[in-house]
Amino acid sequence: MGSLGFEVTPLEKPFKGSAIDFGAEISGIDVENLTDATFDIIRAALYKHSVVVLKNQEGLSSRAQYELTRRFDPAANLYSHGKTIDKRSVLHKDLTTVPNQPQVQIIGHGKVDEYEGLQDLQLTHPHHRTFHKHPVPLEEDRDVTHFYRWHIDSAMYELDPPRVTSLFAARVPKGRRQTLRYDDGSDESLDVPLGTTAFISGYRMFDLLSDEDKAWVLESYVEYAAHPYIWMSQCKARSNGLGLFSDGLELDASQLPPVDEAKIRRYPMVWKNPETGRLALMMYPIPARRIINMKTGVVVDDLKTVRETIYRLQRPAISPQYVYPHDWVEGDLVLFHNHGVLHSIVGAFTEGEVRLFRQCNMAASQPPLGPNDSISI
After folding, report:
1. pLDDT digit string (tens) for 246-277?
2. How far apart are CA 165 and CA 327, in angstroms?
3. Which residues contact 237 (CB under 8 A, 6 or more apart)?
4. Quick one: average pLDDT of 201-205?
5. Strand pairing class (288-293; 177-181)
6. How distant is the alpha carbon of residue 343 from its chain centre?
7. Fewest CB atoms within 10 A around its CB: which of 40, 166, 262, 274?
8. Could you tell me which of 150, 102, 59, 130 has the C-alpha nearest to residue 360?
9. What is the domain partition of the chain in residue ranges?
10. Which helix (H) or strand (E) holds 215?
11. For residue 142, which of 178, 196, 173, 175 has the smallest C-alpha distance?
């Protein structure tokens, strides 16, 4: 039992053979009536464990979810993708803003008569069939799925990645599981709960690198495309959700909104945990445009090479033993350190299956810490 009577317990291994070394559950938390002392416990657990599960939060208000999420970065207040999302963005159809709390979005699947003051919601869970170049055959769609898109929550243009994202489960479809197939030539697969959110550790991703690759990533940056979710809106993804095929489908500058060079984001490949100092390999493969080695000055500008390089570095860490697929229960509130883990939505729903969630995050007040930055924030 921890201080103040709260217990921080590492998450159980989700399946035999799992090698996950992150994630914790904290019992006894009342988010609706959060004290500074209780928040300090949550904060310490999150930076240590990367993913924190708070159970039994039924009735949690959007306001309380927002206030908890913002505590990790009090100077932040703008939703991670800004006040509005361009209709040409691949994200536009996935998000519905809570009217009285614009930092909180409603996500999920199915028809919802009323929620958060909104009527007749028709939510659509992103299906890999709309995004992957080689989707699961239609006749297998009920039972077999893919990781949709491994990502960091971020606009990756103008705004910096949120420090923390919170996900709240209001309604969860029950009783069905799916086989997640990688379909990347590896023969790897994973048994997952329907509609899981899957997490992988950027720290594990860094630790799995060779010494030579570690030295190279520590001195390298990724430059991300301007208006990335419009730029790549015609592209198709790999079947394991880890990046895009290079088929020349990216939009050119004349097809994008005006570009402000000052808003283009360049981040180190390696981000430092602000509390522990641990190093994570944190690259968002889909919007990546260039690689810059700061030591040699070499710029990798060929998009196919950029994608293949990032894929080679990241692929070992998404193998099944390193994936945590959260088994959602109504009332779960999950917080994750967006500067230390990547995640992916998963699954395909049938008629009548309803998934109703709230997501909250805010563009960070500062960029992620690089490997040589001070760990104090």
Report:
1. 999 999 999 999 999 999 999 999 999 999 99
2. 18
3. 128, 131, 132, 133, 149, 243, 244, 245, 286
4. 98
5. unpaired
6. 4
7. 262
8. 102
9. 3-200+321-360, 205-315
10. helix 211-218
11. 178
**Helical (H) or strand (E) element with 39:** helix 36-49
Could you tell me the two tokens for 327? 């088994």
**pLDDT surpassing 80 at residue 375:** no
CA separation for the pair 114, 299 (Å, rounded): 51
The DSSP output letter for 239 is T
Per-residue pLDDT of 49-67, as tens digits, reads 999 999 999 999 999 999 9
Please, which residues have CB within 8 angstroms of residue 129's CB and are 6 or more apart in sequence? 135, 136, 141, 348
CATH code of the domain occupying 3-200+321-360: 3.60.130
pTM equals: 0.96
Distance CA 296, CA 313 (A): 19
Label residue 6 exposed, middle or buried (CB < 10 Å: 0-12, 13-18, 19+).
middle
Secondary element (H or E) of residue 199: strand 197-201
Do residues 282 and 269 touch, judged by C-beta distance below 8 A?
A: yes
* Contacts of 170 by beta carbon, 8 Å cutoff, 6+ apart: 115, 330, 356, 357, 358
